[in-house]
């Protein structure tokens, strides 16, 4: 899908998923939320803080709640798309516009808005032990400057780099990811810096 600059443009580019997106968008902007584009997809905010986002996937459209783990989810509609990685995000999937229960959806969105106004956040364990994957360790052994540059990052950013490589299932992917992050480390650019302050 082409990169959109506005939510309307994103919906127009979605082709077969336009109906679902229009219904979801209309429901979301009927609340206090403001719609914008972040990371190439619709994101709905309050006071500049991310509350929900929309995304088109091959089999469905998802609305995700940035602090969804805090929602009561009495209807059990929310899923964690990446159990081993995602702590706060939860998504609700729709295949057709008929799958959308407007009243229930608005109740979930209103709860998410309330939680955001209360500044409720999922607590993330930031003291997790740093485990350097073998591929990165080998790169440090061959390049002391790379190792010193890596050590200048905060422990959290070091973990992001290490996990990025370690979570790849195939050796080929781990090596490819290593080649991607070496210039970032040498230029003092964190793996997720472009997403911060969004």
TrEMBL record:
Lineage: superkingdom: Bacteria
Record-annotated membrane-spanning stretches: none
All copies of domain YdhG-like, residue ranges: 18-113
Pfam families attached to this UniProt entry: DUF1801, OmdA
Record-linked InterPro entries: YdeI_bac, YdhG-like
Protein name per UniProt: YdhG-like domain-containing protein
